[in-house]
Amino acid sequence: MKTIIQKIDARPGQRIIATSDIHGHLENLVGLLGKLRYSADDILVIVGDLIDKEPESLRTVRYIMELSSKGPVFLSEGNVEEHRLELLCDTNTGPSVFTVMRKRT
Fold this sequence. Notes:
This protein has helices at residues 26-35, 57-68, 79-88; strands at 16-19, 43-47, 73-76. By secondary structure, it is α/β, with parallel strands linked by helices. The chain has a 3-stranded parallel β-sheet with strand order 1-2-3, with helices on one face. Strand 1 (16-19), helix 1 (26-35) and strand 2 form a beta-alpha-beta unit.
């Protein structure tokens, strides 16, 4: 996997909210963002492990996609996402629809 470092340009006074290890617990994420009064003016950074075995993982991903359509959201792949994508992407059978999400070297 190739590492990409991306600069986040925050305006003066703009908040950067960083979190990780959500593991598909959508209600916890929504509650946290509510307590922080998160808005589309903030920059949200999720440092891996957005999904896991929880039944809410898909809804969690869809929620983050919705947030990203309204404001800046940065997401890095955690070990859980890496493992799930390895299970879904058989490198012996050629390209997968999921390879666009990952940079392979």
